[in-house]
Amino acid sequence: MGSRGPVGPDQGGEEVQGEGFADIVPEWCHRTITPGAGPWMSWVALASPSGGNEVQLDFSARELTIKLVYYGPALSGKTTNLQALHEAADAKTTGRLMTLETRDDRTLFFDLLPLAFRDPGGLAVRLKVFTVPGQVIHSSTRRLVVQGADGIAFIADSQMTEAQNSAASFMDLRENLKTHGITLKQMPLIIQFNKRDLPRVRSDEEIAKLAQQGREAVFLAVATEGKGVVESFLGLLHLTWMSLERAHCLREKFGFDYVRFMSQVAQSLGQQRTVREILATCVGGKIEPFVTEVGL
């Protein structure tokens, strides 16, 4: 990338403190539980006061559904990330990976990777993982897919020649969230710098330095080889879940064992390392303090 990071000058009233993606930092969503309109009133929506993100909790089935979205410029590796996750996942926890692609192998609409886990306490968690099409002409589709997202992974192309495309895509994300009444500071967000194996990429040291300037969790990856894919996903899941837990005390209300849940997810994705070790691969951001708080 060039001398400046992917985030351009702030134009939306949000504080900017330096350079790179780490300039725009998220804060935890403040959500309230409101009645839903599902069958027999058996579920409630966990919604933000602004009317933005929602997750659904089905009391009759004791099932919580969380939506995660992979965002980024065209050909940055969003679909490759989902394919690598699908390949790594235990067949018992994942459904069919659905993709819609154009003839030039770009995602036309979205990919959906459903993952399901059940806590020993009985609460089932369904993770719906989507990607968005990165091409500029599909802005309206990205706006539709990102609606209702509970957490977002921004997949940046590490090549210096792609710096402007990454910057434009990140600003596009901000604008699409704003359309739904949400700011970047309200959204659990991780940044993945993908394609670390290619020439002419920003060095690991440069990215780490930029990451330390902000709060977003930053991960490095080579998605085509599966490197950094699970780490990024677990980092996103960790931040998203902590946002929900802080707002709704899911452990207190449903007896949900978050530590065991995260360990179960990691094992189902073929990981032998502890969750603490996996999240420690983050090169900057707010991952480590939250790891300490939940005792992973």
Give a verbal description of the structure.
The protein has 296 residues and is of the alpha/beta class. It has a single domain (25-294), classed as Rossmann fold (3-Layer(aba) Sandwich). The protein is built from 9 helices and 9 strands. Strands 1, 2, 3, 4, 5, 6, 7, 8 and 9 form a 9-stranded mixed sheet that branches. Strand 2 and strand 3 form a beta hairpin. Residues 1-44, 48-53 and 288-292 have low confidence and may be disordered.
Task: Summarize this structure as a short list of keywords or feature phrases.
19% strand, disordered N terminus, 9 helices, Rossmann fold, alpha/beta, 9 strands, 296 residues
Strand-helix topology:
Blueprint: E1 32-35, E2 43-47, E3 54-58, E4 63-71, H1 78-88, E5 112-118, E6 124-131, H2 139-146, E7 151-157, H3 163-179, E8 189-194, H4 204-211, E9 217-220, H5 229-248, H6 250-254, H7 258-268, H8 275-279, H9 287-294
Parallel strand pairs: 4-6, 4-7, 7-8, 8-9
Antiparallel strand pairs: 1-2, 2-3, 3-4, 5-6
